[in-house]
Amino acid sequence: MERGGRVVAVVHGSMTIEGRTPPYRLRPFPLSAPPWPAVAAASGDAVTAVLAAWRDGVVRHEPAVMLLHGGARETRRSLVDRFARDSAAVGWTVAVAELGRDGAAPSVPPGRTGSFLVTVPEDEAWSTDLRCRLLTDPVLRAPERLCVLLTAEDTTWWPALRGRLRKARLPEAATYRIR
Known about the structure:
Strand content: 25-35%
Helix content: 25-40%
Mean pLDDT: 81
Shape: globular
């Protein structure tokens, strides 16, 4: 294939047309924006403690993936916001992955050193294919420590994604259900 060409693939009846530019971008997490309203302290503390233990247990040069699900969407947003701010406070670079709806998806790649946390917000447009492409993107193999936090209410896509990550020889992904 020529440089800059397109790939057309039909998988299980879905057509994907991809160029060189990924359909997503990484941008700095909006740490300067006002925080989301806090969730109940006891449950919020328990969940952020689990997330911090997951983050702090990451093996160098092995990406860690976690799915945070359950609870209300606002609760998940608040917990991700709090976890992102806590991670930045202890030296992690924090980014949010978003789909490039304008056709161009400029991205801020992670550095080769340090720790990098990517949050993937809930968006129905994130197909299993797009999530897999993000998680296997060579750009995300660069940092010394990498965590990718996905959130969702509906998790019907999760088993398929976990299977594809296993085939890509990525470490086992974790899940945490908010009660």
